[in-house]
Structure formats: structure tokens, C-alpha cells
């Protein structure tokens, strides 16, 4: 005898014959897979945050309640206030400049054949750790132009327009007719036409003399003119050479400037030849000869990149060098997804490339630019490595940031309560940026 169910459907198998899943219900499976992640998240994120929050209300030893004293120190301690000021500078300038450079690189390299190679070179610093980048830029910003690339370039550009003197340490020796005058030297007595004047100097090592310098000779007398010799009045060897006289082997001060000064005014000037001789016209009659201060100007050694005033911009520059490539890659990916018909329509309507970029490309890339800017803002709030490595001890206080101050308070100064308060404060600064990013992502999903 057969029986049929309603609708002709087969009857459900008996409960005894149902197969049970080996791993149990889906909820149990989800919990089993998430459990390792939840344990790690709790151990590495939740617990440290909770412990830092509790520790920020305890005293230095951790056995007494300090109230909000640790948080008051955030706004009264000079080091923390400097760090907070520098963090504001970092958040304002570093993400903005890095994002702008990334946008420029992405747009300009879109249509060139070697664009991929250029992007690879710009992105390459991202493969370098902060520690290595800090060491690199500590050398780049070295004060010595022979070591630091930044000052080598800066000094090269400067000396192109304002050449420094080759005789910064030259000065009159014993029995010299010269005396100090406003950074230079002036003869004690006026000179006469038809006279040969000796201007002996010392203080420059023979190997530091200009390459064009030749053996000095005593200038010949010329009627109606003032002649003379400016030379290095020093010969190596004890008892060798005579003071105030040109001896064999002594070199002339090639290129040195000589001025004839009368009543405080320069009436004539001349340039010393390679052999140390010079000639002044008849106007020098009765004047005193002066070697101006420009002859003894110290060589320009560039900027003190790691000094108190420039150390923060210098470190921000190294950060931009690392992260501009990151911004460029993300923006280039967004640029590749733009609808080309909109760009072409703008060009057909008569817009030039600048107008297309400003009124079409940038507005369409606004979501990508926001992602890059927000990511870099979060990143700069916790910057530590570059500041710790690049800034020398003499200017580290001026380059201080909150992450570095947290390290210094917690480990160098043994103030864990204040260090925990700084950590909580940094978390509070990051939360608004994260919430903004989450809201923006949700709006993107709804679209």
C-alpha cells in the first residue's frame, strides 16, 4: 500500500537517518574560526589600550591614584607642548604635500612611455624601513658639504652666484705694514706714485693656496703708478726666508682685491695677478691701500638643516620622500578608473588641460584623495623613527613629536603615568580621523 503527501513531495527522511555536521552549527564554526583572531585582538589591542587607560590615572610608581595630574602635564610640560605643536605641523603639511606630489606625479606620468619606470623609482623608498631612511637622511643633511648631499647642492648653487674667498685665514705677520680695518687690513701709511708696496700675509697653508697661484715676484716700479706685491710671506724650514721680502718658493695671493682708499672713499682698485703683483693708476697717489674683508670671507658651508629652526621641515621632507610614492600609486589607480568620456567631453567643449585637471580630474578623484590624505594623517600622528634617528641630540627637543615624547617619558625619564596619558591622547586624536574614514567608506558602499 502506497501513500502520497500533499503536493506530491517526498516525505522528509526520519530523524534517525539525518546526517549531522561534523563541525556542528554554522555559528559554532564561525566562532571557532574567529577565536584565534579575537584572542590576538584582545591581547595585542584591547588589553594594551585598557591597561594604558588605567595606568594613565596612576602615579609614577603605579601604586597610587593620581587623578588627572598626568593629563594636566600634557598641557603644562614644555616638552609635551613642543611635541604637540610639531604634531600639528606634521598633520597639516606632511599629508598635504605628499598627496599633492602624488597627484602631480600620477597625472604627469599617465601619458609618457617611461611613466611606469618613473613610478617605480618614486615608489621604491616605500621598500625602505624608517630606520634605514633615517640613517640615509642623517647623512643627506650633514652640515659638511663634503658629506651631506643637501648642503653640497646648496653650496654649489650659492657659490655659482657668490664665490667665497680662498684666503679666509690670511692675516698680517710680524713687521707687516698692514693693520686691521673692518674685517680687512689697511696700510698704516699712504702710498706714493712710483712706489712698489709690499703687502706680506701669512696664515694660509701652501696646499690651501689657489691652483692658479705662482711664485711671487717683487713688482717693478712704474712711473706715475703704484705697484706692489701681495704674497704668502712664509717659507717652510727653520731659519729659511726673510720677513717682509719675497723669497724663492713663496706664492702670490692670486685673485686678491686691493683698494686705494682716500678720505674714506675708494679711488682705485686692482686685482692681484697670479704672481702676487698688482698695479694701481695715478689716482692712488696719497691713498692708503686696503685689502677688503671680502678677501677673507669664510667659505659658505650651507644651511644647518638639523639645527633648531630647520630640523622639523627637514624631517618632514624625508617623510614625503618615502610616502609620496604611496600617494602616487593609489591616485594613479583611481585615475585609471576615471570615465574617459568625461575628460574628452571637457576637451571638446574647449577646456584646456589645466581646466580639465582642476574642474574634472580633481573632483572625480576626490574620494581617492580623501583616502590618501586620511591614511597619511593617521600615519604622521604616530611618526617616531625618523625624528628619533635624524634629529641630533642638540636639536631633538625642537623636533620632538608626541610618539617620541611617549618613548622618552616612558623609558628615559621613568614616568609611565605621563607616557600612558600621551598614548591615550594620541588614541583620542586618531579616533575622529578613523570615524571620518568609516563614514566616508559607508557612503561609498551605499552608492
Description:
The chain has helices at residues 26-55, 69-76, 78-108, 115-123, 130-140, 149-161, 311-336, 340-348, 353-364, 366-381, 385-390, 402-412, 416-446; strands spanning 178-181, 184-187, 195-201, 226-232, 257-262, 265-271, 277-280, 288-291. The chain has 2 domains: 69-152 and 305-446, MetI-like fold (Orthogonal Bundle), CATH 1.10.3720; 178-296, no CATH class. The chain is of the alpha+beta class and 447 residues long. Helix 4 (115-123) packs across helix 7 and helix 10 packs antiparallel against helix 13. The strands form 2 sheets. The protein has a 5-stranded antiparallel beta sheet, with no helix packed on it.
Task: Indicate the structural class.
Answer: alpha+beta
Largest sheet: 5 strands, antiparallel
Strand content: 5-15%
Report the helical percentage: 40-55%
Cα-atom radius of gyration: 37 Å
Shape: elongated
DSSP, total strands:
8
Uncertain regions: pLDDT < 50 for 5+ in a row?
1-7
- CATH homolog superfamily of the largest domain: MetI-like
Question: Helices and strands in order, then pairings?
Answer:
Blueprint: H1 26-55, H2 69-76, H3 78-108, H4 115-123, H5 130-140, H6 149-161, E1 178-181, E2 184-187, E3 195-201, E4 226-232, E5 257-262, E6 265-271, E7 277-280, E8 288-291, H7 311-336, H8 340-348, H9 353-364, H10 366-381, H11 385-390, H12 402-412, H13 416-446
Parallel strand pairs: 3-4
Antiparallel strand pairs: 1-2, 2-8, 4-7, 5-6, 5-8
Helix pairs in contact: 1-13, 2-13, 3-7, 3-10, 3-12, 4-7, 7-10, 8-9, 10-13, 12-13
Any descriptors?
three-stranded mixed sheet; elongated; 13 helices; MetI-like fold; alpha+beta; five-stranded antiparallel sheet; 447 residues; 2 domains
Amino acid at each position: 500500500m502506497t501513500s502520497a503527501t500533499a503536493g506530491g513531495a517526498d516525505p522528509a527522511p526520519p530523524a534517525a537517518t539525518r546526517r549531522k555536521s561534523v563541525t556542528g552549527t554554522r555559528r559554532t564554526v564561525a566562532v571557532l574560526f574567529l577565536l584565534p583572531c579575537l584572542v590576538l585582538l584582545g591581547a595585542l589591542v584591547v588589553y594594551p589600550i585598557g591597561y594604558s587607560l588605567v595606568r594613565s590615572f596612576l602615579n609614577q610608581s603605579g601604586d597610587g591614584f593620581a587623578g588627572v595630574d598626568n593629563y594636566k602635564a600634557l598641557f603644562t610640560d614644555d616638552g609635551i607642548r613642543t611635541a604637540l605643536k610639531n604634531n600639528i605641523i606634521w598633520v597639516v603639511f606632511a599629508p598635504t604635500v605628499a598627496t599633492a606630489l602624488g597627484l602631480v606625479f600620477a597625472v604627469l606620468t599617465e601619458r609618457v612611455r617611461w611613466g611606469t619606470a618613473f613610478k617605480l623609482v618614486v615608489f621604491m623608498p616605500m621598500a625602505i624601513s624608517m630606520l634605514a631612511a633615517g640613517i640615509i637622511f642623517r647623512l643627506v643633511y650633514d652640515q659638511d658639504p663634503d658629506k651631506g648631499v643637501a648642503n653640497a647642492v646648496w653650496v654649489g648653487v650659492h657659490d655659482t652666484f657668490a664665490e667665497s674667498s680662498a684666503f679666509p685665514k690670511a692675516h698680517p705677520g710680524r713687521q707687516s705694514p698692514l693693520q686691521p680695518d673692518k674685517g680687512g687690513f689697511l696700510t698704516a701709511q699712504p702710498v706714493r706714485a712710483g712706489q712698489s708696496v709690499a703687502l706680506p700675509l701669512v696664515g694660509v697653508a701652501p696646499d690651501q693656496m689657489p691652483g692658479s697661484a705662482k711664485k711671487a715676484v717683487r713688482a717693478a716700479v712704474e712711473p706715475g703708478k703704484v705697484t706692489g706685491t701681495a704674497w704668502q710671506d712664509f717659507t717652510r724650514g727653520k731659519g729659511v726666508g726673510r720677513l717682509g721680502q719675497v723669497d724663492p718658493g713663496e706664492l702670490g695671493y692670486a685673485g686678491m682685491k686691493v683698494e686705494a682708499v682716500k678720505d674714506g672713499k675708494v679711488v682705485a682698485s686692482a686685482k692681484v695677478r697670479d704672481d702676487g703683483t698688482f698695479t694701481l693708476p695715478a689716482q692712488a697717489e696719497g691713498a692708503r691701500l686696503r685689502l677688503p674683508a671680502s678677501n677673507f670671507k669664510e667659505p659658505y658651508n650651507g644651511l644647518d638643516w638639523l639645527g633648531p629652526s630647520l630640523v622639523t621641515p627637514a624631517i618632514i621632507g624625508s617623510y614625503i620622500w618615502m610616502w609620496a610614492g604611496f600617494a602616487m600609486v593609489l591616485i594613479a589607480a583611481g585615475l585609471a578608473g576615471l570615465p574617459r568620456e568625461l575628460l574628452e567631453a571637457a576637451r571638446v567643449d574647449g577646456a584646456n588641460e589645466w581646466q580639465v585637471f582642476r574642474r574634472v580630474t580633481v573632483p572625480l578623484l576626490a574620494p581617492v584623495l580623501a583616502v590618501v590624505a586620511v591614511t597619511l594623517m593617521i600615519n604622521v600622528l604616530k611618526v617616531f623613527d625618523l625624528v628619533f634617528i635624524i634629529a641630533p641630540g642638540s636639536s631633538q627637543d625642537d623636533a620632538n613629536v608626541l610618539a617620541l615624547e611617549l618613548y622618552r617619558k616612558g623609558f628615559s625619564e621613568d614616568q609611565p603615568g605621563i607616557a600612558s596619558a600621551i598614548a591615550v591622547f594620541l588614541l583620542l586624536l586618531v579616533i575622529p580621523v578613523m570615524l571620518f574614514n568609516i563614514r566616508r567608506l559607508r557612503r561609498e558602499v551605499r552608492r
